[in-house]
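Translate sequence into structure tokens.
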Amino acid sequence: MDRAFDDASLAADFRALFATATVGIAHVDVATRRFLSVNDAVCNMLGYDRAALLELTTDSVTHPDDVDLRDQLYRSVVDTGTATVEARLRTGSGRDIWVRVQSTLVTDADGMVRRTVNLLTDLTARRESERLIVEESERAHLALAAAQAGTWEYRYDPPEMIWSSEVFALYDRDPARGAPQEGEWAAMVHPDDVEEARRLGSVTETADQYAGAFRVRKRDGGWRWLASRARVIRDAAGKRARIVGINIDQTERLENETALTAAAARFRAAIDAMEGVLWTNDAAGRMMGEQPGWAKLTGQTRAEYEGFGWATAVHPDDSQPTIDAWNIAVASQNPFVFEHRVRRHDGAWRLFSIRAVPTFVAAGEISEWVGVHTDITDQRAADAALHDLNATLAERVGQATAERNAAWNNARDLMAVIGSDGIIRAANPAWTATLGWDIDEVVGRLHLDMNHPDDAPSSDAVLHDAQQAAVPNYECRVRHKDGGYRTISWLLASPDGEATFINGRDVTEERARASDLAAAQAQIHEMQKLESIGQLTGGVAHDFNNLLTPIIGSLDLLQRRGVGGEREARLIDGALTAADRAKTLVQRLLAFARRQQLQTRAVDLTALVDDMRDLIGRSIGPAITIVVDAHADLPPAQVDPAQLELALLNLALNARDAMEGDGQGGGGTLTIGLDAVMPGRETGLPQRRFVRLCVTDTGAGMDETTLRRAVEPFFSTKGIGKGTGLGLSMVHGLAAQSGGKLVIHSTPGEGTTATLWLPEADAAEPEDALPPAIEAALPAAEVILVVDDEDMVRVSTATMLADLGFAVIEAASAAEALALLNAGTAIDALVTDYLMPEVNGAELITAARALRPDLPALLVTGYADTDALDPGLARLGKPFRQAELAKAVAGVLG
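Result follows.
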């Protein structure tokens, strides 16, 4: 076919496609970014007619927040000839739309590149759908959180339990530990509820639904009630494939119901105690429904008392006055207070005091009346008898005075009368029992003399206020005769505006308990905060290790091969030094997060400190005196010696900085103390012997606020560029991961003591002998299978092994590795990453050895939360250099 005919045909075809395509097509000038031509789809998409759009540039229709994406598109298309980006455009009506722009450079006939062809696809509907899905997911999680509920799923083939984050919270379990196995889960359930909780398994063999409730243990030692609902999903054969369920926290509801039941019981008991009868009427006064109290009192049946039938039990002479008073109360919506006689079930007439109050709906209308009939027959008889005794007033006054004096003299509360001049006029014997003062020592004194000096001004103000109105619950400190102070809660009243009557109760112990509780709660909060920060830090450090592994490995290879000239060698050496510093930083992060791989053993701390004394001295300078106070016969401590040396150096450097900043010229004394003691219960450590390493300085000390934050990662008082803020964090993590604790005591102006508690070991172990040369230990022509889902890490590891003379096969997943083994591929050793999706490295090694029992294997990990792994499994921590990799491989190949 003729070439010219081909080009013309193609041009005609393109014009037809350009005009009719449903995807937007636009030519854009590269230099000016002006639209050169657009098809109908672009005009419809952007809401402009063609003439108007050809007057605009792409800048005119780009969303302001996506300008960087637009510039990135132009840079990429100029550099590579083609580029794609998803961004927002603004239409002529002001509406924002999402589009995918695929841009390609076009070469003109003269060979110059002046324009691009852009394909525009409208993604607005897809983006909106994605947004709605995200919002729906967020709403579902918020709804579960609001309902204190969580979802779970059990799969049968293979068996697997999946918990949502909310279920982990309901069980107070760290999600990093995963869902528990059946035995561990049963141990978390209340012993009385295990059978009910396990009923789910048996019920769902035949039924498709389950409902139950059981208690699980909370972190604080209490119990949480969980309501469980589950549905069975079966396969085509009717077998259980999955069980999907929800757990709902019912603790608060059940506690509220219990409290409500108790309150109702107390209310009924109170009514019974005053021999009252509780009843309810509707807004008009009709008695409706079950009224057990009224029925018991009168003997009336429900049919007899319902409506206004209750009035037939009222004495005929009192019936009409009762109705009249009742109608007035209903009309005025005021409480109904009255007295009348009621025929009891045994026919006797008794006098009752009635008090009823209305309850209202939101509109202000009466919903019902709640009333109490109280039998006052005997009370009225007593009143009559008292009336008859008025002639013997003097006798009754004497009796009342005697009763008052008995109450005054026998009361446990402090009582006193204070005149308007502030002088104590009278005091009861409780002052002697509570404060040690004789009555004669109290009466006649100015009340302010008895108060703590700091409380005297407020006490004087309260005494003045009491002359206007009663003052309850005022607290101040009052002097004890022994010189101490007691906290007293006072009630003050001045009925006549002159003398003030005060009643006080000693609440010293109660306030002390409240203070201790607040301090304990604050400590728990700090522990939870540090734990949360530690989890976050550990995750970041793990990802950073994966990034550092190919960096350090590649730089190490370049350095070993002597790539480039002297300048390149310096650059590589500098980059490798920086990467090693980053590695140290990650190790400190892992130390704080308790995730570093510790090589613990029994360590002689006295020898370790002696060996480090010169290094510490050079690090902190000659102006600071070092004193070592080590007890004789000090037992060894179970700890990683390398990490402990780093921790001790960090503590020494912190002490040096504190002494440099104390305003005394940078001199001082650094004391390192070593002993073995039982920790106090306040430390929270087990009650057994620990080895204690104390680093004490004579520096500036820390205030309470700084001390609380001292072990937080990246917190530093040294100023920008003078510290990472990870020193104490690393020491804290080392202590916690070693089974001990870091405790810091500090007082401003008096220095700081950092105490490192470490578990006592059985006996000190000798240092390992240096390994033989790695090159001599490497076998020749071995085939190694390298497995890692991170491409950069896998390629870096494979390159280092190949450089050592090994033949290397790579696999990006456990499935690929097992397929190679099943196919009979010749493999002499397996090197695998630990954290991989679906199947981790430890599980891969187990599966591989099921196929080849004697296969040497090395587990590589940048995250040390692998305590449950076989301790005999060979491991290599990320990041690593070629020599470290060679040593580890030589070890597994034997």
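Note: The two ends are 70 Å apart (CA to CA).
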